[in-house]
Design brief:
Number of domains of chain B: 1
Order of helices and strands of chain B: HHHHHHHHH
Number of helices of chain B: 9
Number of helices of chain A: 11
Structural class of chain B: mainly alpha
Oligomer: heterodimer
Shape of chain A: globular
Radius of gyration of chain B: 20 Å
Largest sheet of chain A: none
Distance between the termini of chain A: 17 Å
Shape of chain B: globular
Number of strands of chain A: 0
Strand content of chain A: under 5%
């Protein structure tokens, strides 16, 4: 899917630029964006390292476990087939809470760990596509999480299918759970809005609606168990 | 009003204080835990770098080719009838791929029409109710090494559409 979209974007850009005479702009854009991506990653590296560090403290202190228990009914409703004591639940909980609070950069690390744990869950369920995750996990557990080896990466890239939990988790994430659009309020006041916070109520309503649609869609897709 | 706008300024230091304080009181080796977590985080970022380069390159090229402007011109007259100004079309498309590129467009709209105009209000609500679809999908699925994404895209686009419709309806109610 992503392969087709990516190829389509690149090809379309070049063809359209050729037709409209924007070739030099496209050349610059290709090089500039690549550089921009690297500088974004440098910023991101710092922030992600910071939040993952804090999250590790929170985890070892049992804080994340408490949070997870707090939103447990919600998690069980959305992800009924993740075992109660599975680490994936903790990371999903941390991600959802960071999302709701609008802690942008804090969501991503938790979300990425949640995806890794969901991959482990698939391995535990005996899904052959994920079989090598487990070997990996056994080898370097405890020490540095479940980061995977490069050589095994290549082997597995043949095509793993997302589990229902992964699809649902991502759809929910993309539907946005943020309650107070802090960034937008800041930009609005920066550009002289008479009432920057006037959008909070409609933004919450719109967010609830998009998330509700996401949940309905996921529950509908997820009906009748392991759909593969 | 300002207190709300600066909520993240207060929230993050308090959160950090709370986590480190709670950890220390619970006799967790806070510094060592932090280093372990940070190391994990760096590894994740290294894994993401190629994805970001690929995605941002594709979006950058498409934007520079002028295709988004064409899209706005073509779809604008149709979407204007349902309350979406043509001005917002490039934003709607870019928003699917990159939050930072979308922010640039948002600021343009604020600059040109003002944040309290119809377009400005719609933009504000729109940006608050969905996330970047393709960016989130590619980065998250990469972490699980998944290539077949099944119904994720359809669901994500549905949620985005729902958010867009809700934004248009709400804006029409707010700005008359």
């Amino acid at each position: 899917m992503l392969n087709a979209i990516w190829a389509f974007m690149i090809l379309l850009a070049v063809i359209y630029a050729a037709c409209t005479g924007h070739m030099s702009e496209v050349t610059n854009a290709a090089l500039d964006s690549a550089g921009e991506a690297i500088s974004l990653c440098l910023t991101m590296a710092g922030v992600v390292a910071l939040w993952m560090g804090l999250m590790e403290i929170a985890k070892r202190a049992g804080l994340i476990e408490k949070l997870t228990r707090g939103i447990s009914p919600f998690l069980t409703f959305l992800f009924p087939r993740i075992p109660k004591n599975h680490p994936a639940r903790e990371y999903i909980a941390a991600n959802i809470i960071a999302n709701i609070l609008g802690l942008g950069w804090a969501c991503t690390p938790a979300g990425l760990k949640a995806m890794e744990e969901l991959a482990n869950l698939e391995a535990e369920r005996g899904n052959p596509e994920y079989a090598n995750v487990k070997n990996e996990r056994g080898k370097k557990q405890e020490k540095s999480g479940n980061q995977t080896d490069k050589n095994y990466d290549r082997k597995a890239s043949g095509g793993r299918r997302a589990s229902n939990e992964m699809c649902n988790f991502l759809i929910l994430n993309i539907s946005s759970l943020q309650l107070i659009p802090v960034n937008m309020i800041a930009y609005r006041s920066q550009y002289g809005s008479a009432n920057p916070t006037s959008i909070i109520a409609p933004a919450i309503a719109a967010t609830l609606f998009s998330s509700l649609m996401a949940v309905i869609y996921c529950k509908w897709k997820d009906r009748g168990g392991v759909g593969r | 009003m300002n207190a709300l706008a600066h909520i993240s300024d207060i929230l993050i230091p308090i959160l950090i204080f709370f986590i480190v304080g709670y950890g220390y009181v619970s006799k967790v080796k806070v510094y060592e835990s932090f280093l372990d977590g940070a190391k994990d985080g760096l590894k994740i970022v290294v894994d993401i770098v190629p994805t970001l380069v690929g995605l941002m390159m594709a979006v950058g090229m498409l934007r520079a080719s002028g295709f988004f402007d064409l899209l706005g011109k073509l779809l604008g007259p149709i979407t204007e009838k349902v309350g979406l100004p043509a001005q917002l079309m490039p934003l709607l498309v870019v928003k699917l791929f990159s939050a930072s590129a979308a922010t640039g467009l948002v600021l343009d709209i604020f600059k040109n029409s003002g944040p309290d105009s119809y377009a400005g209000t719609l933009t504000s609500i729109l940006m608050s109710c969905t996330e970047t679809v393709f960016y989130t999908m590619s980065v998250y699925f990469l972490a699980a090494k998944v290539t077949k994404t099944r119904y994720t895209l359809a669901g994500a686009l549905l949620a985005t559409l729902a958010g867009t419709v809700a934004s248009v309806v709400l804006t029409a109610m707010l700005v008359t």
